[in-house]
Amino acid sequence: MSELTEKPQFETTQPHFERYANEFTTPENELLTELSRQTHFASTVPGMLSGHLQGQLLRFFSLMMKPQRILEIGTFTGYSAICLAAGLPENGKIISIDNNPELTHLAVEYIEKAGLKDKTELLCGDAAKLIHQVQGPFDLVFIDADKENYTLYYEAVFPKVKTGGFIIADNVLWYGKVMKEDALTDKETRGIAAFNNLVKSDPRVEQLLLPVRDGLMIIRKCGE
Q1: Tens-digit pLDDT profile for residues 95-145
Q2: Among 95, 194, 208, which residue's Cα sits nearest to residue 152?
Q3: Which residues make Cβ contacts (< 8 Å) with residue 124, sequence separation at least 6?
Q4: Contact 28, 50 (CB under 8 A)
Q5: Which of 87, 151, 188, 208 would suit a FRET pair with 174, their CA atoms being 20 to 30 Å apart?
Q6: Torsion sign over Cα 91, 97, 101, 106
Q7: Is residue 73 within 8 Å of 153, Cβ to Cβ?
Q8: Is 26-221 in CATH node 3.30.565.10?
Q9: Which of 154, 192, 148 is nearest to 171 (CA)?
Q10: Backbone angles phi, psi at 4, to 5 degrees
């Protein structure tokens, strides 16, 4: 093959592309950098953090949508909640649910540092129960919790989402395991695969799966 017709060879690993994308994305602010660092100190699974690239994407969604009310299922240390709150109006609110009280102090601390204390309500407990207790409607919902229950959370929250509102679900590629039939051996992978298939066949929505980090499913609730 000649030099003119030879196709260039690119490294296609996710870290390679993510490093380049981060280089050309507005830098992470000091507060989120500090929160990321503290999360790595406090948690044995810091990879659960949304991180800069995904956090900036969530922030942009919020800024474009200008949501009045946001529901987040899976607070962790508050990184994504801070990013999602960026587009809230003065009287807007984000409700965030998590079942791990050991890390709540970090979320509380950094949400307050971000000046979002009055716009944020943190709930600790079983999301499957708490979703039914929170008052909608919501313009935007972010699901980033236990993967085996994504379908349960989706169905529970759907009636509380405004027509034209959005649901965003994280980790829908689940390290690529959902694309391998022989990998559907654990409850997390089966849960994500079932969720993806449910959304794909749901006539009430239109969706876009973005291969950002571990995959984001962007779901729009259509008119009924």
Answers
A1: 999 999 888 999 999 999 999 999 999 999 999 999 999 999 999 999 999
A2: 194
A3: 97, 98, 99, 100, 101, 104
A4: no
A5: 87
A6: negative
A7: yes
A8: no
A9: 192
A10: -75, -30
Q: How far is Cα 190 from Cα 9, in angstroms, rounded to an integer?
A: 34
- pTM recorded for the entire structure: 0.90
Phi, psi of 118 (to 5 degrees): -75, -15
* Domain residue extents for the chain: 26-221
Torsion 63-65-71-76 (CA) sign? negative
137 cis-preceded (ω within 30 degrees of 0): yes
**CB-CB contact of 151 with 116 (8 Å):** no
